[in-house]
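Lecture 7 notes: from sequence to structure.
We start with the chain below.
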Amino acid sequence: MVCIFCIAVLAIVAGALTAASLDDIEEQLADKATGEVTRVSDTESVARFELTVDVGGKEAPVAVTLYKEHSRARIQVLTHALTPEEVKRLEDELAEAIGAKIVDRSSPEAEADEPAHEHPTKDTEREAERVDAPPAPERTREPEPPRGAP
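Predicted structure tokens for the same chain:
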């Protein structure tokens, strides 16, 4: 299922993301946030920040995910209380703050064109019949009984 929140995919201009650059990005986000910026996760490959930003008197929760190895980021506006123009402006401001360039955007309008989980129709059922898939492997071993069982 496609996420219904607005997302901007960014390319980090500076190159590889280091611990120092993550700290700088966190400080830049803190300048834009109305409260604290929370580093929700920080693994070898991904860092995710959550913050709230004031947009025209409305509180907008935002998640910023940084993909370290690929020098990419994703800004996800986690509310539908903003207009598409406000979302775009917010994404632009946050991208500028962290030194990134927006390379792609999604929106509820664009996602409405994409089918989510459709029910099979006769055409899709016929198509599925034409696809030759290998049979599922047979089970060769019975599951072990629970420990402590007689």
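Points to note: Confidence is low (pLDDT under 50) at residues 115-119. DSSP finds four helices and six strands in the chain.
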